[in-house]
Amino acid sequence: MSSPVIKKRGSGWWKILIGVVLALFVILLVAEVALRMFVTRELESDFVEQSAATGAATDETPEIGFGPAPLLLSIATGTIPTVNMSTPSTLRITHPDGAGSEVDISGMPASDIRITDLALRNPDGPIAGHVVVETDISDDMMLAQVQAAMQEQTGAGDDGLAAALLQNLVKVTDITAVPESGTLDIEFTDGAAHVVIRPSAVDGQLQIEATETRLFGFALPGEVTGVISNALRSGAADIGDGMNVDAVSVRPNGMHLELSGDDINLNEMG
Predict the structure, then answer these.
(1) Is 230's pLDDT higher than 90?
(2) Per the domain annotation, does 27 fall within a domain?
(3) Cβ-count burial of 163 within 10 angstroms (0-12 exposed, 13-18 middle, 19+ buried)?
(4) 131: closest CA among 26, 29, 6, 267?
């Protein structure tokens, strides 16, 4: 004779509880995915709008990630722990009045941006507790920056810049990165002269050291190398306004910068 089956009390409640937990997990998972998609779209939209506002409109959007921490917690704290962005280049270098005319630079080069503790509730824009930016400034961009600075200086109407470099007969025509020596070769007047400079990071600033300055057999005026140095430093400052230059290296076709800063308003970044 078989023994009677004894039902365990409460077994039905455990099944219901497990079902509720699984359902809640699915709801939270869907909400997390939806929130990440929403924030990503907002950041992409801001990037496109800001690019258009600077005259460098683009249809490309950045790649955005938020790390493993749930974004749902950010609703309560008002802070996103991690945001990683890879922004496409919006750089535009043109000569509006034709070849040989003044150069116009708009947009920014591609960058990898790592943000820690992004506070969302600031009325003036999101504030990043800490930001690290890595970017490459191409030979073409550096050339445009230096040419624009030279044009501005020689158009000032004074007797500076070594008598306007013989009334503009001497022009910067090329910049070539030389990774083997960690230097930049700056060419004047289609190879008639060269200046070799070495960039580095010192005390949070981009420093430029001229290692060779010769022009038609004579020393190039220091005022000229000063304009070149200031142009490159200004270009780095435009990329990371209020940020420190932590590392500089010369790579094929350009100069690599690593910048960082604390309490940075993203709306004010270059």
Answers:
(1) no
(2) no
(3) exposed
(4) 267
Please list the residues that pair with 227 across neighbouring strands: none
Would you call 206 exposed, middle or buried from its count of C-beta atoms within 10 A (0-12, 13-18, 19+)? buried
Return mean pLDDT, the chain.
81
Question: How many other CB atoms are found less than 10 A from the CB of residue 170?
Answer: 19
Residues 22-60 as b/e (b if ≥16 CB within 10 A, e otherwise) read: eeeeeeeeeeeeebbeebbeebbeebbeebeeeebebee
The answer to whether the CB of 184 falls within 8 A of the CB of 206 is: no
Asked if residue 233 lies in contact with residue 245, where contact means CB atoms within 8 angstroms, the answer is no
pTM, 2 dp: 0.79
Structural domain range at position 145: 62-270
C-alpha to C-alpha distance for 72 and 51, rounded to whole angstroms: 29
In whole angstroms, what is the distance from residue 182 CA to residue 151 CA? 27
At position 250, the amino acid (one-letter code) is V
- Note whether 187 and 196 are within 8 A (CB): no
Residue 200 belongs to some domain of the structure: yes
In a domain, 45, yes or no: no
* pLDDT tens digit sequence for 37-60: 888 888 888 787 777 776 677 778
- Report whether pLDDT(217) > 70: no
Give me 29's structure tokens: 């998972």
What are 135-171's pLDDT values in tens digits?
A: 999 999 999 998 888 777 665 555 555 545 544 556 7
